[in-house]
Amino acid sequence: MTTSNQRLLVYIGSYAETDGPGIYVSEFDPATGKLHIIQSLDGYRNPTFLNVDMAKHRAYSIGEMADANGSKAGEASSFSIDPATGKLTVINRKKTVNSTTCHIQRDELSTRITVTSYHGGMVGTLELSADGSIGELLDVQQHAGKGKDPERQDKPHPHSSFYSADGSYLFVQDLGLDQIITYKVDKQKHKLEPHQVTQLHGGAGPRHLVFHPNESFAYVINELDSTITVLRYDKHAGLLAIEETVSTLPEGFKGENGCAEITISADGAYLYGSNRGHDSIAVYAVDAASGKLTSKQFVSVEGGHPRHFALTPDGKFALVANRDTNNIVMFSINEDGTLQYTGEQLEVSKPVCVIPVYLD
User: Which of 197, 230, 240, 329 yields a CA-CA distance of 20 to 30 A from 220?
Assistant: First the structure.
């Protein structure tokens, strides 16, 4: 339960070179709607995506490094979070897989992290020690094949991975294959075992996934054709089944567009997806019985290329990271789930990920 005196922090990842800031800790003031930076960290190349574990006061980031041969490789960094200030102190840095990565996720017990490589076509898991440090590489799953689009789907391009609530399954969205590839997690052998392939329509380009809070449905946002696919989810068997696919764009829009992030309200009543090109957040009402979607709103993000966005834990605000216009924009959330621009922005260079959390 939250209280009015809890501090609301926002952790930010961005595209950056090592000689400039790339990871930011900021504080959000709900009374004024303003966001201000309290710490910035440099020395990290493209620390674009973060994962925050407030229960253990840890944070994790992807990054890029050069391996012994000078080739690009993935790196992950672990940080401790000061419980009084929310500021970060690095614990360790570790090479992950033999390619750059675009996403990082953590299992429910904080025993492993998973990194996803768009360019390498693979997903890798690494152990987490009790002190929060990143340990050895446990497993790598290399995808194979291609999709419908000869330019964007010439090979596998996994874009994200998400664990089931109990950590038994890992769902990998492969934009290049138009597939959600589900792995069963062998927690004793620390391996990923192929479990199910959910084939989406050709040219979809699945990017990110979110589960309904009741775990009966899942939603995947498709980057290439600007759609969201609704899936029924059997949490006991770890199986997905397609229910419907809807557009993320208003009727009549003819411009270029690519989707990015998707999230759902804590009560499961409203779903949100970002459009890059139309530069908007699409808002939907969720039918409680079927999980299906009804369009409610397309709201301008007051910037360009909304790579990521997130709702605050109290469900009162949305923060949108616009990569190409270097701004994070604040919206209030109305009772009907629609968004309203507050007039407040924070300038940040090439923001990619925003994670709002309460500091206990």
Answer: 329
